[in-house]
């Protein structure tokens, strides 16, 4: 899978790189190249991406593991994990601590930070628990008229580890989210999803009205346009040729593209488009306050710009997926966006990273040099990570982490820049385990037991699978060996199916 537009080799000195990545389990990321060579150092990962502000979703880590992920020498760490369900969800935001002589040293200074989107959570100050919405010295603001019923509902919404907010000295509020998906397709799940989005979007509008710049980044679990959803394109019987672009599809199939957004069965798409100043609905765009940086730089012409794929159906090799991961900014920040793209070559998750390079004017920060107190939500304070592990007393003495001060440290494996990954063939990123002789013999015996595999419509031998449905559990069947993909793609499944 090739990336149409390579990531910029050089990032400008006054550009801040925002990067979002749903890692689907932080530990599993280090099982894949090139991360497997980084000694499980998350700082090495950030350096590899050359990113300054990073958000990861679906961390799936417990509190006991946060010392490794939340106590970094060169980054502020802000992490929200679920209060009840262990090893589920989780969002982290890391802000690089730049040297004093760096042009953006002051611009990226953290002023305030919050957990959640309602402001009803809080931090301990002395012996008291102070909520963000009740104390302007710790709260970012924008809490007016948020559409939740009561405090109990607000606390439930913020208890799943789905959002982190950070305010920078450059008058920018960075909002990192992992929005609900309603994977169970239940009415309760859809109500929770819509409620979350309504509160999130109202909070953003409030912040925008206060004059703050907003960067919303993460896995929104909402697909904004029909051209971003392979399955819906196929369901609408839209044949896509190599020379066809998104604009042509939207002009030729205007009604289908509009129905995709305003379909009453998927209200989250309408809610999302109402926030976008680049929505295809002009009436929605007029009220929108956010712009899609990827679409801004890649244009509506580019198709198949997917960020997540179905791993069960192995749809990634055929690039048959959807786009639900975004870096969105306040509309007035659009002129600051230097570059933006997706990185589908980066393996390690069912999602891929998305980034945007945003230019900052250092003069936007009034004082040239000033000190601010680190917010109590910073992981070292929130999770009491300031105390060292007693086992470290019996090991080698390591350099102590000093918050707010850049500490140089040796790296055993120098991470390669992400830019060079684009130039590689995707196959080199995959680790293929060859079956042993015993496994080959077992496969051969199974093949002989079930007979010779029939040929599919491609004229190729089919592969054997086992049914996991309630109606035919354990029953064997033959299917085309190619993954599900777009209609007409010769490297996609031909749809062949035959029971054994």
TrEMBL record:
Site (Important for catalytic activity): 325
InterPro entries per UniProt: AP_endonuc_1, AP_endonuclease_F1_CS, Endo/exonu/phosph_ase_sf, Endo/exonuclease/phosphatase, Znf_GRF
Cofactor(s) listed: Mg(2+); Mn(2+)
Gene Ontology CC: nucleus
Cofactor, how bound (note): Probably binds two magnesium or manganese ions per subunit.
Family matches, as PROSITE patterns: AP_NUCLEASE_F1_3, AP_NUCLEASE_F1_4, ZF_GRF
Gene Ontology process terms (BP): base-excision repair
Coiled coil: none
Keyword Hydrolase: yes
Record-marked site positions (Transition state stabilizer): 221
Gene3D superfamilies: Endonuclease/exonuclease/phosphatase
Domain (GRF-type) ranges: 456-500
GO terms, molecular function: DNA binding; DNA-(apurinic or apyrimidinic site) endonuclease activity; double-stranded DNA 3'-5' DNA exonuclease activity; phosphoric diester hydrolase activity; zinc ion binding
Active site as annotated: 178, 219, 351
Keywords assigned: Hydrolase, Magnesium, Manganese, Metal-binding, Nucleus, Zinc, Zinc-finger
Assigned protein family: Belongs to the DNA repair enzymes AP/ExoA family.
Protein name: DNA-(apurinic or apyrimidinic site) endonuclease 2
Lineage: Eukaryota, Fungi, Dikarya, Ascomycota, Saccharomycotina
């Amino acid at each position: 899978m090739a990336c149409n537009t390579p990531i910029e080799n050089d990032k400008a000195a006054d550009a801040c790189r925002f990067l979002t990545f749903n890692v689907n389990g932080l530990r599993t990321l280090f099982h894949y190249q090139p991360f497997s060579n980084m000694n499980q150092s998350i700082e090495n990962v950030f350096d590899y991406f050359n990113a300054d502000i990073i958000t990861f979703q679906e961390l799936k880590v417990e509190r006991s593991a946060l010392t490794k992920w939340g106590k970094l020498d060169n980054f502020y760490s802000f992490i929200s994990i679920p209060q009840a369900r262990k090893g589920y969800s989780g969002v982290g935001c890391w802000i690089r601590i730049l040297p004093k002589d760096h042009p953006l040293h002051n611009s990226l200074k953290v002023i305030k930070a919050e957990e959640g989107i309602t402001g009803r959570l809080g931090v301990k100050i002395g012996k008291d628990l102070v909520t963000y919405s009740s104390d302007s010295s710790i709260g970012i603001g924008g809490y007016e008229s948020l559409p939740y019923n009561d405090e109990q509902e607000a606390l439930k919404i913020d208890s799943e580890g789905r959002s982190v907010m950070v305010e920078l000295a450059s008058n920018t509020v960075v909002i990192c989210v992992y929005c609900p998906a309603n994977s169970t397709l239940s009415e309760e799940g859809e109500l929770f999803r819509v409620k979350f989005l309504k509160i999130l979007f109202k909070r953003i509008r409030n912040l925008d009205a206060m004059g703050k710049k907003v960067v919303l980044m993460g896995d929104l679990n909402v697909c904004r346009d029909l051209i971003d959803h392979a399955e819906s394109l196929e369901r609408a019987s839209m044949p896509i040729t190599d020379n066809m672009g998104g604009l042509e599809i939207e002009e030729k199939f205007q009604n289908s593209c509009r129905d995709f957004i305003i379909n009453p069965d998927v209200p989250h798409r309408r809610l999302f488009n109402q926030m976008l100043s680049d929505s295809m609905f002009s009436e929605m765009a007029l009220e929108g306050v956010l712009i899609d940086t990827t679409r801004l730089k890649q244009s509506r012409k580019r198709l198949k710009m997917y960020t997540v794929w179905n791993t069960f159906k192995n749809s990634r090799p055929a690039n048959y997926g959807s786009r639900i991961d975004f870096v969105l900014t306040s509309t007035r920040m659009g002129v600051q966006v230097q570059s933006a793209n997706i990185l589908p070559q980066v393996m390690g998750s069912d999602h891929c990273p998305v980034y945007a390079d945003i230019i900052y004017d250092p003069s936007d920060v009034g004082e040239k040099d000033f000190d601010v107190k680190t917010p109590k939500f910073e992981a070292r304070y929130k999770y009491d990570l300031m105390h060292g592990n007693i086992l470290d007393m019996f090991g080698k003495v390591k350099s102590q982490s000093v918050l707010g001060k850049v500490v140089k440290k040796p790296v055993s494996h120098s991470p390669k820049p992400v830019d060079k990954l684009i130039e590689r063939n995707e196959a080199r990123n995959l680790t293929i385990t060859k079956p042993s002789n015993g496994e080959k013999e077992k496969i051969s015996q199974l093949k002989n037991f079930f007979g010779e595999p029939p040929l599919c419509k491609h004229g190729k031998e089919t592969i054997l699978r086992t049914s996991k449905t309630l109606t035919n559990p354990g029953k064997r069947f033959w299917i085309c060996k190619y993954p599900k993909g777009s209609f007409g793609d010769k490297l996609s499944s031909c749809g062949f199916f035959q029971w054994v």
